[in-house]
Structure formats: C-alpha cells, structure tokens
Design a protein that fits this description.
heterodimer, A: 175 residues, alpha+beta, 5-stranded mixed β-sheet, two-stranded antiparallel ribbon, 45% helix, elongated, B: 67 residues, mainly alpha, 51% helix, extended
Chain lengths: 175, 67
Amino acid sequence: MNIREVIATINRMQSDGVIERYAIGGAVGATFYLEPSATLDVDIFVTFKSETGSALVSPQPIFDYLKARGGAMHGEYIIIAGWPVQFLPPTSPLAEEALREAVTKDVEGTLARAFTAEHLAAIALQTGRPKDKARLLQFIEAGALDAARFQAIVARHGLAGAWQRFEKQFLADAP
Amino acid sequence: MSFDLQKILESKRALRRELAARPLAEKLRLLDVLRERALSIRPAKPAPDAGVLREEAPSYSKSDKPA
C-alpha cells in the first residue's frame, strides 16, 4: 500500500496521454496542507480524453490502461498500489476551476498535482457534509487559507450564503 | 501533563500543527499507515442496523448555488 505509487502511476498515465490533466482532491488533497487524517480512498479529478469521433467523454481509456497494468476494478474504484482510487470529472464550475488552478508539489522527486487549499476549502463548503465542515474548520484553524483568495472563490461560485451560515454556526463564538 | 483543559486543547493544536508541518512525503506515508489501521479495525465493527443514521454518499456534482 503506497500512495506515492498511486501518484507516480497517474503521472505516467498523463505522460502516456490517457488523461489531459489531473489533480488530487478530498482527504488526500487536504493532506498537502493539513495534518494527515485517515481516509480509505483517493479522489482524483481528471479531464477525460474524448474518444475519437465521439462527443461523449468516457473514463474507459483510464480503466483499460490501468487494468492492463494490473489494476483491479472494485465497484466505482480501481485499485492502484493497494489504494482504491476514484476518478472524477469536474462536474461544477468550482471543480473545473480547482482543476485548472491546481498546483504542482514535489514529493521527494515525484511531482503531484493537488487542488489549492482555498479550492479544497471551498469545495468542502459547497459539499457541506459534516466531515466537510470539519475539514473546513481544520483549514481555518491551521491558518492554511489565503483569506482574500478564499473569499474571492466563495463569491465567484455563489457560496457567500453558505459561508455566512458556516461562520454563524462555527466561528461566531471562536476565541 | 495536567488536567487543565486549556492546556490539553493547546497541546492538541500544537501536535496538529507539528504534524501538518512535516514533509509532504512523510505525511503521505502516514496516510498509508492510517489507512492500514482503519482497515484492520473495520471488521470488528458490528454491521449497522436499519435504524442507524448514515452519512450521505459523497457528491461532487452539486451546483454552485447553495441549496
């Protein structure tokens, strides 16, 4: 089980032209900025390559590529280096922007693309499950966000109301 | 060590800061370890009955407009 091997595999997939662009999101993405927290899977946001002559985009080339290299399908996941990996298309303008503006990090010689802290926080705000709110609080408590950049994303993607509610619920009485 | 809640909370914050500041490669190795631990204790968990509240499945496909 080795998450760096997952990243290296996805890099190879990109250099082999199977995907155009990728970025790590979710709990693994958050680990680029916060303390590590237990997670069972890896969320990889990708732009899929269109099949020739088809207007539809499909993850099938990704699955074919990985299965040919020993990857096993498990429901919606494909197992790479012991980790269940889920490939996700960006299905909202926020996720599209997050993918476009993802940053490259050097992990002891392995380059990894990850969402920025501000985009991860905004996606957590938008998704809004209890664990997303907890993660957003972690980002705030850790001082990991550029406030102006985060607020700009919130405003740009219609999340001002959600942010106000979050502030009222969690930050109003903060010391 | 003390039972002063403020000191305990501050020490927790300090530990989290220290973990967050570790090199990225080390943090990713910790993710591997954390996942193995989470999996190792999973079978011991009793199957939830129908009355248990469950978190909704993750969704990344919401519109940008708040509900």
